[in-house]
Amino acid sequence: MSDAVIEARGLGLTFQTNDGPVHALKDVNLTIGKGEFVSFIGPSGCGKTTFLRAVAALEHPTEGSLTVNGMTPDAARQARAYGYVFQAAGLYPWRTIAGNIRLPLEIMGFDRAEQAARVERVLELVELKGFGNKFPWQLSGGMQQRASIARALAFDADILLMDEPFGALDEIVRDHLNEQLLALWARTGKTIGFVTHSIPEAVYLSTKIVVMSPRPGRITDVIESPLPRERPLDIRDTPEFIEVAHRVREGLRAGHGHD
């Protein structure tokens, strides 16, 4: 029995448009193991988000196979195998932070006491304890994104899918949230799939970096990170970090050589 959580084999995804077919993904082979932190990086339109959305059953592959916890993505969605964090926090302005986090739990039919306990626990996990009664507009952008992560964690799925969650934030806030996300990952042991445009972010966060080429999205390199799991921010100044970042950059360049 393999500990593969996400497995893609010969995966392809073509969108039919009025201007003809768009090949978003082509011949993608990838295995993500339990507890890995995997970043996807590549130019805009290379299929990073499409791959994540396919895992979440929000898009449907047109060729090859994709399994999540040994199931089809649709079955995994019904089994609530993952939480999904979008680029924008997507919080409902008329609900408090606790109310936003509670929403999926309400939909899933958890009783009120269980909802309250889970909301408290995830607020603590993302360091927002005491902010449950605030409304989204009362929180900074970084805090809203943490609330969005808390909502994705509330029903305790083993997999967390994150589509450029910090892309719109300034660098100082982003650095802080990267540190917090690593601490959260260390505490929860979840499997994380993370889409980013930032080479330093990908290298800092990941145990494995998947470098993708421009459309049709193919994998040009899969880099197993040699960095230790304990990563202070200043690890970014070390030769090991710079070497991995260089290899990512090379992979992105190589990808431009495809037809």
From TrEMBL:
InterPro entries reported in the protein's UniProt record: AAA+_ATPase (IPR003593), ABC_transporter-like_ATP-bd (IPR003439), ABC_transporter-like_CS (IPR017871), ABC_transporter_ATP-bind (IPR050166), P-loop_NTPase (IPR027417)
Keyword match Nucleotide-binding: yes
Entries under CDD domains matching the protein: ABC_NrtD_SsuB_transporters (cd03293)
Keywords associated with the record: ATP-binding, Nucleotide-binding, Transport
Domain ABC transporter per the UniProt entry, residue ranges: 8-235
MF terms in GO: ATP binding
Keyword Calcium included in the entry's annotation: no
Pfam families: ABC_tran (PF00005)
Residues passing through the membrane, by range: none
Family named by the database record: Belongs to the ABC transporter superfamily.
Name assigned to this protein: ABC transporter ATP-binding protein
Species the sequence originates in: Plastorhodobacter daqingensis
Taxonomic path: Bacteria, Pseudomonadati, Pseudomonadota, Alphaproteobacteria, Rhodobacterales
